[in-house]
Amino acid sequence: MHLFDGALSFSDLWTLISWVYTLLVVVTVVALIVERREPVRTLAWIMVITMVPVAGIVLFFSFGLNHRKQKIFNLKETVDMAVLDKICSEQLHDMAGERIFSNPNLERNRDFITLLLNNNKALLTLSNRVEILRNGTEAFPSLFEAMRQAKETINIESFIINGGHLFEEMCTIIEERIREGVKVRIVYDSVGSRSLRRTDLRRLCSTGADVRSFMPVFFTRFTSKANYRNHRKIAVIDGKVAFTGGMNIADRYIDGIRGGVWRDTHLRIEGDSVKMLQMLFAVDWQFVSGEELMADNRLFKPSTANTVVPMQIASSGPDSDWASIMQAYFAAISKAHDYIYCSSPYLLPNEAIFTALRVASLSGVDVRIVVPERSDGKIVNWASRSYISSLLDAGVKVYLYQKGFNHSKFMLIDDQMCSIGSANLDFRSFEDDFEVQAIIYDTATTAELKRHFLDDVAASVEVERELWNSRSKISVLMESLARLLGPLL
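RE: above sequence
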């Protein structure tokens, strides 16, 4: 091959491209290994990169890069985070001096509370009032009524916003409130809301609300799993009342789907935890708009709650040092003595959570998991089912919800604590997406959620071990293949 004697022949050019591509593959694989991700995710990406020429590299650089250490944006650079650091330090000091543990339930969960303070700066708040909202028929009337009462600000953050009658009702309320001088801010995820039509987006913007897209992705209609999505669902009105949980803004939460109801769980919160959700929204808003909200006194109001419901608002995402919600799940599962009840639309746990669930069951803890009979994606459904056999072998009870699609994301431990939020029991929620969970240390709230869980169990079919193991070999093969792709979904 003579590089300087004239134009390269096709054969020479192809050889050069092959060497360059091979070098790129080797460098990428080495970088993956050095990065020290979970072995299953590393091996999955190596398989894609080496077995799917060119496309594998494109997929990795589009969706596989890990920005957790590079930080998409840095919370610690926000001046007001210094205030949060100080409060966290004071709370940890108070815990050491046992000044906040007159509540026996808090004493039992001291280690868990400390974990979330250290890995997430999730302040423990005591003065809260909580209402569990079951399905859209309870959640949206409550949310819209709070919005109608707004006097100063409405801040909304949603993974999905779709057009429809709920969307139109929301737009009408926003128009009315803006005419009365209320400031309205809305953040939607560009991939999650890829079905939002341009006409609907123009309608939303025409209300006068300040509408921002989180990390826009081109060709969103052709990509459903682009990395680092904002999966949080947060609404804060006047800094006094907040909503969070599993529900987006779409008609299916009221009307259901072809296969039945759309089952979900949300929270209405008053009290000091509203400030934590407002702060989380403010950080996300600064990222998408550049506007600093921390100094706006209208957003952070004193608590008016006259009840004690201890709570921490935990968040996670590729901007944080730790996979905080995953660690919280692991700690909660590990500390259970009597039972662990979990509801998740997807069952794609990482190895740590998968092992923790099986160890808890083998240790005599009553572990029950409710997942949908039918998922909203075939590959995800097959991948989820691939974990069931090993769970059944360890004595975990798995239930397939029959009435429709169960989208609820919550966990209960020993009648002592519960977690409700946006995080699924899957790789993406633990590692890639921006999530939020409310961790509640209240026996009454946990008891109410337990009743909802048992209602879901009654609407489900328990997976029988012998019957499950006799399913077709084609099903087993599809599940096994899908499981290999699970870390990439």
